[in-house]
Amino acid sequence: MIIRDLEFRGIRIEHLGMYFEELGAKPMTATFPYIYEAENWSGQIISEEEISFTSSFKINSVQVRFCAPDDHTLNEVIKNYRFKTTRIGG
After folding, report:
1. Which among 58, 80, 81, 59 is positioned nearest to 11, based on CA atoms?
2. What is the number of domains present in the chain?
3. By CB count within 10 A, which of 39, 47, 50, 79 is most buried?
4. Which positions ≥6 away from 17 have C-beta within 8 Å?
5. Which of 86, 73, 84 is nearest to 21 (CA)?
6. Is 76 domain-assigned?
7. Does a structural domain hold residue 64?
8. What is the CATH number of the domain that holds 28?
9. Looking at the DSSP assignment, which residues form a beta bridge with residue 7?
């Protein structure tokens, strides 16, 4: 099993979980770590903390773990997940 951890900032946990579900995973837990299982891979929302850049500018930082049996599957899942988390400024 290959494991890769990533950090996402400024995206709500509810949305990160929804992205796992949109990629075909089913939620297995309702508390930390939030675990999502798919046929050939799994994902976890491990933790969340608040980061302060200034006294008034704060965002969340969420640790997300991806697990898959091989590099190809893992890279595909992460690519598709990152596509969903992409935010375009205007």
Report:
1. 59
2. 1
3. 47
4. 27, 34, 36, 45
5. 84
6. yes
7. yes
8. 3.30.1370.80
9. 63
For 87, the token pair is 């935010």
Sequence-distant (6+) residues with CB within 8 A of 64 are: 5, 6, 7, 8, 16, 43, 44, 45, 46, 81
The residue segments making up the domain with residue 64 are: 2-85
Report field, pTM of the whole predicted structure over 0.85: yes
Instruction: Name residue, tokens 């935010």.
Output: 87
Which residue, 61, 48, 70, is CA-closest to 3? 70
Tokens representing 31 are 């508390």
Give the model confidence (pLDDT) of 30-89 as tens digits: 999 999 999 999 999 999 999 999 999 999 999 999 999 999 999 999 999 999 999 887
